[in-house]
Amino acid sequence: MSETLLMLVLLAISAACGWYLGRQNTIRSTGKRLSRLSTTYFRGLNYLLNEQPDKAIELFLQIARGDRDTIETQIALGHLFRTRGEVERAIRLHQGLLSRTDISDADKIAALLELGEDYMRAGLLDRAETLFSDLVRLDEQQDKALRHLLAIYQFERDWPKSIELARRVEQVSGESCAALIAHFYCEMAEQARRDGDRELARDRLLRALQADPESARAGMSLAQIEFSEGNGAAAMRLYERVARHATDYLPEVLAPLLACYQQYGDHERMRAFLAEMLERHDGVAPVLAMAQLIERDDGRAAALEFLADHVKDRPSIAAQAALIALGQQVSDGAARTVLDVLAYSTEGLLKRAPGYRCNRCGFGARSHHWQCPSCRVWGSVTPVHNAAVK
């Protein structure tokens, strides 16, 4: 059983137990009820420890049925059903709670929030949107309701509404949503570029940078537009800014930035920038770029010496492949045969290794995603450094 499920069941059973134990004056007069509860509670714990969640849930249901006033317990049970994928069962339970006339306003609000999450899990987004919008208008649980609405609008790719909701979340919670808002503007910019409206795309990207001046995505996208329009100097400044403020994205920035340097023949600036990145970036990307520059300017032997010296401190499959490739060019006979075998093996490792990983959920991918496909967090997928490929 997953850790999350275990936690939910324990929480639910504890809630039921706590409610009963809170009525100690009544329970003391009927010691038999306390004994029966304790027995049921510990039987449930035993089922959990033996990874028998279905039996534990059945005992929980017995506790909930035993007293119709256990509102918190039943809300927790519905939450558990939804987590297990039994969404219809969760909806029926929460709707049943809302039909009762003997529960407090606070309990109704809690049940409404749970029902809204049930609708979201079931894909009934229109119902969920209506429910959460009503809660916002009633000024009840605004923070949670706004966040749920924000998730719905993101799923529907309604970026203007997503921006509006993110700003309202900022006002209610005091939490900055600048990075999130910048991503929404970038999504709108991408749509504008697909539609062939480059000026609108530029405007959206400038708005993204206004929201979050350190947005790597906005800076890189705007640099692409500038470069495509022949504004290489502006593109260089943007790429360099991204590399300095978001060093995790240096592997993504290097190739287009080096293309800018080469187009303008600014090799001195290129070398100075790579030297700076060698100091600031722990990955192997600037090492590989500098090795190529040294090979062009100072020869293959100098590049091989540089690469061999730096790979020791920054182990990487990509660095190993580059070192082998250089070695193949200066070797023959048995040494060349060994290096050919190593090159083939390393190439296979590179093909299988994920080039990107989410720093929230660990999702690995061969291509970059600005929003993690697994946990749906924005900006959490970054290039893998050192021991893997970059």
Written overview of the protein:
It is a single chain. It is elongated and about 85 Å long. Among the domains are: 171 residues, Alpha Horseshoe (Serine Threonine Protein Phosphatase 5, Tetratricopeptide repeat), CATH 1.25.40; 90 residues, Serine Threonine Protein Phosphatase 5, Tetratricopeptide repeat, CATH 1.25.40.10. It has 20 helices and three strands. The longest helix has 20 residues. Strand 1 and strand 2 form a beta hairpin. Helix content is 74%, strand content 2%. Helix 5 packs parallel to helix 7 and helix 13 packs antiparallel against helix 14. With 390 residues, it is an all-alpha fold. About 4% of the residues have low confidence. A three-stranded antiparallel β-sheet has the order 2-1-3, with no helix packed on it.
Q: Quick summary of this structure?
A:
Among the domains are: 3-173, Serine Threonine Protein Phosphatase 5, Tetratricopeptide repeat; 192-281, Serine Threonine Protein Phosphatase 5, Tetratricopeptide repeat, CATH 1.25.40.10.
Comma- or semicolon-separated keywords:
elongated, 3 strands, 390 residues, Serine Threonine Protein Phosphatase 5, Tetratricopeptide repeat, mainly alpha
- What is the radius of gyration computed over CA atoms, rounded to a whole number of angstroms? 29 Å
Structural class assignment = mainly alpha
- Which residues sit in consecutive blocks of at least 5 with pLDDT less than 50? 23-38
Order of helices and strands: HHHHHHHHHHHHHHHHHHHHEEE
Mean pLDDT: 80
Biggest sheet strand line-up: 2-1-3
* Largest sheet geometry: 3 strands, antiparallel
CATH superfamily of the domain at 3-173: Tetratricopeptide repeat domain
Architecture of the domain at 3-173, CATH level 2? Answer: Alpha Horseshoe
> Helix segment count?
20
The portion of residues forming beta strands comes to under 5%
Separation, N- and C-terminal Cα atoms: 36 Å
